[in-house]
Write a structure and sequence with these properties.
By secondary structure, the chain is mostly helical. It has three helices and two strands. The chain has helices at 2-21, 28-47, 59-86, and strands at 53-54, 57-58. The chain has a two-stranded antiparallel ribbon with strand order 1-2. A hairpin with a 2-residue loop joins strand 1 and strand 2 (57-58). Helix 1 (2-21) crosses helix 2 (28-47) and helix 1 packs across helix 3 (59-86).
């Protein structure tokens, strides 16, 4: 049950990060969950584990990490699309 709860919270974190940035996460629901998990890991590394904790996620650093991750992925996707359009 805790794994299911972690998937739900990870998906919500990824979804919120996409909403804040106004960009869709590639991959839909699965992409949101992945962005939430990787964002939580990245946020924990960069910002530490502070703030409210839900299902093993420190919410504020996880959200900030997911925002950073989505920005990086969107810049890479834009660069790849731009490069393929030029050739």
């Amino acid at each position: 049950m805790s794994f299911l709860w972690s998937l739900i919270i990870g998906g919500i974190i990824g979804w919120l990060a996409g909403l804040i940035l106004g960009r869709d996460v590639p991959g839909g629901i699965i992409g949101n969950i992945i962005a939430g998990f990787i964002g939580a890991w990245l946020g924990g590394l960069v910002f530490g584990d502070w703030g409210p904790d839900v299902a093993g996620f420190a919410i504020i650093p996880a959200l900030l990490g997911a925002i950073i991750l989505i920005l990086i992925v969107s810049f890479i996707m834009r660069a790849v699309r731009g490069r393929s359009a030029n050739h």
